[in-house]
């Protein structure tokens, strides 16, 4: 009986010591969450240069600037690296407006597109207002360049002297 | 027989006491993930811990009155399928805690350093964290993700 009482005492003491350790221990818990976002790549087209025809003479010849020429109109495009793009010739005017409601015709648009900032090796492709250029992509550094050329009609012999202008609108989208 | 009876009786007496001495526990539960939503390349997006329903929410449940230390493991970027990265940053008020899970009583703190707080009488605190995402202009469209962890330790 004496031996049993000793075992019982030892058991009780062990329980008490165990409880004390539990109260003093450091508790740690860790949880992890996901962090997410959906990114839409940016895309911007800016005017890289206007299409400026040289002066023409009343009753004289018209003027042509090819898209591969240095005087071609230019659009700079920037976006994500290797981003696929679609270019739309939203508005290519058929006339330029001059003084006193006069106008002069413009037609024969052509374009060059390149991932490099040079158009000299390009063979221009014809394009009309409203046409789209699909299947193009920006460069590995996210750049693209579009050049546009056109043919200015021959001015009439009584063409009003002055400056004639119009706007072209080019829209670039990511397909 | 008598010693066995005595042992049985002692165990019956001890049982309730043993149940009452169950070791204290500490848990961190995830209530909500951190979702920055739709971002546009080149446009930074900042999410304060309490001004959105898309910040991450953690629930800490531990011993009432215990002081606990919070340590975040913060990602500096999240990754997309194409290998692109969206940079993340966190500021001195990117995290906050609330004893009532309310946007009114939350107390901001800096998640970049260990932070200690005392658990209220009910032993429950809600911790929220936002941050800033900086998608570069060069990123490809798509989904970007990563992980953020919170470790809580009693002191």
Characteristics:
heterodimer; A: 175 residues; mainly beta; seven-stranded antiparallel sheet; three-stranded antiparallel sheet; 11 strands; 13% helix; disordered N terminus; B: 155 residues; Immunoglobulin-like; five-stranded antiparallel sheet; 1 helix; 12% helix; elongated
Question: Please, could you describe this protein's structure?
Answer:
The complex is a heterodimer of chains A (175) and B (155). Chain A is mainly beta and 175 residues long. Chain A has one helix and eleven strands. Chain A has one helix at residues 2-24, and strands spanning 28-40, 43-49, 63-65, 73-79, 84-91, 95-97, 103-114, 125-126, 132-137, 143-152, 169-173. In chain A, strands 2, 3, 4, 6, 7, 8 and 10 form a seven-stranded antiparallel beta sheet that branches. In chain A, a hairpin with a 5-residue loop joins β6 (95-97) and β7. Chain A is elongated. A seven-stranded antiparallel beta sheet of chain B has the order 3-12-7-6-13-5-10, with no helix packed on it. A five-stranded antiparallel beta sheet of chain B has the order 1-4-11-8-9, with no helix packed on it. By secondary structure, chain B is mainly β. Chain B has one domain: Immunoglobulin-like (Sandwich), CATH 2.60.40. Helix content of chain B is 12%, strand content 46%. The longest helix of chain B has 19 residues, at 2-20. The termini of chain B are far apart. The chains are: A mainly beta (175), B mainly beta (155). Chains A and B meet through α1 and β1 of A and α1, β1, β2, β4 and β13 of B. β1 (28-40) of chain A pairs antiparallel with β13 of chain B.
Please provide a brief summary of the model.
The complex is a heterodimer of chains A (175) and B (155). In chain A, 13% of the residues lie in helices and 43% in strands.
